[in-house]
Amino acid sequence: MRQIYLAATGQNRGKTTAALGLFEGFIRRGLDAGFMKPVGQRTVIDAGEPADEDAVLMRAVFGLQEPYSILSPVHIPRGFTKAYIAGEVVEDLGAKIVGAHATFRDREVLLIEGTGHTGVGAVIGLSNAAVAASLGTPAIIISEGGVGRPIDEIVLNASLFAKHGVPVAGAIVNKVDVEAQPGIEKVLERGLAPYDIPLLGVLPVRPILSNPTLEMILEGVRGETIHPGPDLERVIDGVAIGAMEPGHMLERVGPGTLVIVPGDREDVILTLTTAHLMGVPRTASVDELTQPTLQLADGHAGAAIGLVLTGGYRPRKPVIEAIRRADLFATLVPHDTYTVASEVHDLLVKTHAADREKIELIKELVGRNLDIDRILGVATEARIEA
């Protein structure tokens, strides 16, 4: 059985992007492919079963039939590591992974997705390097755009794999601005060559792949809908924190910006709703924006795509009416602005099964920019002990 262990130089480097695209490539070639994520850091409950969210994603996208006990044998919920260190976890976690892995013995190719950087999981004796070694699979390391940083990170992570006797079959660099850096692929290739790490390809940066829809924001922050706006399927362009004077706020938002703002900052909220209604230039004065006689401008672009109102502070009724009149998406959450911003950041970098357009773009991007057959070629055969 050919198999590949997808590793990375850190969180949110693009393992899931690569996994989606590579698995699609395997299927398109008529291969009987399997997938597993041995150790997961982000546990969710799907149909009553706990599993890592990436295993849930792959199962949903590709209709995988294996139970989560096979696809995601070990997942680390909050408090697990402390319990493990305290000796309260007596289960042989390594054996669970090897047992799950053995069920794929008859597949033609197995894609194994790691978690975080190469050392993640060492606290419970299951670093990516240790797991790859126990499964007898070569690793492919994924980093992200730049020149010096990806090379440094790839080499550093490769050293831990080498210590565990795991061959590094190559590297992929994600989120590369190929237009701003013509010839960057050759530069990266030469930079990795002294370390005998082949560059297996680069994936160009695509902002839409990092941006969620308003519906995903609503689900992610688990807020109360104040107003859904015209289209929950719209993708946000960026995020701004409404913690400054209203006039300065306007300089930092565009028609696709999601603004996270305390619900009691009515000055900021009203400025954004009025600007959204008028479609006025961002250079307009605050006085101009707060005149009660302003009318809706034809073809206005708006000043924001929506609002996340934090702190549990419900705006006064006239402010809520202004939000609805402007037809701005708005949700009210009990958490503070920092907590909400962190949750939204996680949404910016994760892919969810509902992101159909994003997933199709990922498949196309990987298929066009990575040589799937070459990557299959570096997957070695490994005998699985029963």
Summarize the SSE layout with pairings.
Blueprint: E1 2-8, H1 15-28, E2 33-36, E3 39-40, E4 43-46, E5 49-52, H2 53-62, H3 68-71, E6 74-75, H4 80-85, H5 93-102, E7 109-113, H6 128-135, E8 139-144, H7 148-163, E9 168-176, H8 184-192, E10 199-204, H9 214-221, E11 224-227, E12 238-241, H10 246-250, E13 257-262, H11 266-278, H12 286-289, E14 306-310, H13 317-326, E15 329-332, H14 337-349, H15 356-369, H16 372-378
Parallel strand pairs: 1-7, 1-8, 2-7, 3-6, 8-9, 9-10, 12-13, 13-14, 14-15
Antiparallel strand pairs: 4-5, 11-15
Helix pairs in contact: 1-2, 1-15, 6-7, 9-14, 11-13
Backbone CA Rg: 24 Å
The CATH topology of the largest domain corresponds to: Rossmann fold
Under CATH at level 1, the class of the largest domain stands as Alpha Beta
Helix content: 25-40%
Average pLDDT, to the nearest integer? 85
Strand content: 15-25%
Q: End-to-end span in angstroms?
A: 14 Å
Envelope shape? globular
Strand order, largest beta sheet: 2-7-1-8-9-10
Biggest sheet record: 6 strands, parallel
Number of domains: 2
CATH architecture assignment of the largest domain? 3-Layer(aba) Sandwich
Counting DSSP H or I runs of 4 or more residues, the number of helices is: 16
Structural class: alpha/beta
CATH superfamily of the largest domain: P-loop containing nucleotide triphosphate hydrolases
Total beta strands? 15
Low-confidence stretches: 280-300, 382-386
